[in-house]
Amino acid sequence: MTSELGHAIVLLVSVFVSAISQVMLKKAALRTYPNHVAEYLNPLVIVAYVLFVGCTLLTILAYQGIPLSLGPVLEATSYLYVTVFGVTIFHEHVGREKLLALALIVIGIVVFATLG
């Protein structure tokens, strides 16, 4: 495995874990809490923010071995993860416009991957 590929995989893992963190925060936001402090100091929120910090560190590590132009392309996969989680976990509806937007994202990723 080349160094660049390994760093790209680290960034993709970071983006995926970040999407999981977003789901955790949304789940926490859907709950009712006795006070404002409990909204922020509960295990789900704390773990989600710890994961975000870890993702930030992984992203910094990943950018040490990939071209700067590749990072945003790989980070765009987060839209795919968040949409899949939204549909499967929160039963959100995906309309035609969102599907078109996701298709454009995938096309952009494929074009960058093939043409550089």
Describe what you observe in this structure.
The structure is a single chain. The protein has helices at 3-29, 36-40, 43-63, 71-75, 77-89, 96-115. The chain is mainly α. It has one domain. Helix 1 packs antiparallel against helix 3 and helix 1 (3-29) runs parallel beside helix 5 (77-89). It is flat. The mean pLDDT is 94.
Question: In terms of per-residue confidence, which ranges show pLDDT below 50 for 5 or more consecutive residues?
Answer: none
The overall pLDDT average reads 94
Radius of gyration: 16 Å
**Gap between N and C termini, in Å?**
19 Å
**What is the structural class?**
mainly alpha
Number of domains: 1
DSSP strand content: under 5%
| Alpha plus pi helix count | 6
List the main descriptive attributes of the protein structure presented here:
single chain, mainly alpha
Topology:
Layout: H1 3-29, H2 36-40, H3 43-63, H4 71-75, H5 77-89, H6 96-115
Helix pairs in contact: 1-3, 1-5
